[in-house]
Amino acid sequence: MRKIISTLIIAATFQSGLHAQSDATPSEEQLYRPNFHFTPKKGWMNDPNGLYYKDGVYHLFFQYYPDGNKWGPMHWGHATSKDLVRWEEQPIALYPDDLGYIFSGSAVVDKNNTSGFGDSKNNPVVAIYTYHNPNRAKDGKIDVESQGIAYSLDNSKTWTKYSSNPVLKNPGIRDFRDPKVIWDTKRKQWVMALAAQDRAHFYTSKNLKDWTFQSEFGKELGGHGGVWECPDLFPLKVEGWKEEKWVLIVNINPGGPNKGSAGQYFVGDFDGKTFKIDEHFTKQLQREKAVWLDWGKDNYASVSFDNVPQDKRIIIGWMSNWEYAQEVPTELWRSSTTVAREVSLKKTKDGYILKNVPVTQLKKYQGKPITKKISLKSENRLITKSDINLSKAVIDLDLKKMNAGKYTFSLKNTLGEEVLFGIDNKTKELFIDRSKSGKTDFGKNYATPITKAPLNEIYVNAKMKLVIDKTSIEIFFNDGEKVLTEIFFPNENFSELTLNTNTNGASLEFNAYQINTK
């Protein structure tokens, strides 16, 4: 939950933190600054915002407090990339004003100039965001949050806030935020999905300025362990079928499958006014209670980019968890994003799977592969530092002839610290255990319990793609059918990968690549 904290306290914390670690800055950079995940040069970052593509450039905005390393008065930070992998931080895009802090939202390329903000030379980019009024919040008011817009005619170098903000006033709901807007091609209208406490509200507009309430969704459906945040509604074609379904991603904090914040999704149909879950998905939801985008503890507020080429749906998330995000052991900056991921929709006999895998652009940074084939023993040394640098790597694992036992991979360093992860093919689950990963005594529920993701069967063959950076692992099981994302803070970079198993007869083939982005 976004916490309202005194600016003075935050600034003081930041300054004392800078002073305390000034001598150790190279060590912090060396140990914890990610190699290829975006992180701000300094300050606090959380939710991705305003994601869009235009004129060959991807734009990533994010919740940002430049003057401290904890949550504070929110701005929109800004970064750009030509390929979704190498990001360049830009000047701050949106600052707080008299209407409040600039909370999460989205941005759209207004190709038809429906807003009237454009001119003959430029399609406007319109940002839609939440105003959070700290004074009204302090006074215990309900109508704290409203929606505003701003526009840019120079590819987000400068922004002009709309003079008649807010464009959507508060209807009497305390948590009323995070507008995600898309163009509904079929009905030629803008559609806004908005988080309204424990459900989603849908609004429509012809011009991005005047919004009409259409419906709500989510009461007593899915996870309700915390407030709903950062929704995203979009259509996707179903793999191997002619049909198209609408997907609604909803982030929740707390109430995730492994405690803390997480993202869930729903699959259904949208008629321009109302979102209704599909009959097949209804049975899945009754069985699973909530359907999760990522089972790890560190993928929150994942939302998608507008105007991406070839109608791909690309998402990116905040790689942390509100249980400990403000206490992680970095001082100069806090937080990074996940790797950008392409999502696709698969229909199975059990329901729908929103698969997500790293964007293909990551492959162009992969070095020459290290390839090995191994008949597995109880203990197997897979990769050492003489093979590749495991603080910036992608590893494709292919397990065959598996038995009903446990396959435990371990990322290790010379200090004896390790991150354990793998497949328990007896209890039918994926797992990550970071209890011995280095620094673990911060925040709430960081190291315990072990993260688990259920599997529907005992596997004979299984694949995993690992994306490993200095302080993170992203595990994509069987082409992204199950995903686990987690962060860690070792006192020395991990340099070895091993695999232990209590079964016989299985084999492993893998390709390991070093990621070179510098």
UniProtKB/TrEMBL annotation:
Domain Glycosyl hydrolase family 32 N-terminal: 37-350
Keywords, in A-Z order: Glycosidase, Hydrolase, Signal
Domain Glycosyl hydrolase family 32 C-terminal: 370-507
Membrane-crossing segments per the record: none
GO MF annotations in UniProt: hydrolase activity
SMART domains (alphabetical): Glyco_32 (SM00640)
Signal peptide start-end: 1-20
Similarity section: Belongs to the glycosyl hydrolase 32 family.
Protein name: Glycoside hydrolase family 32 protein
Organism: Epilithonimonas ginsengisoli
UniProt lineage: Bacteria, Pseudomonadati, Bacteroidota, Flavobacteriia, Flavobacteriales
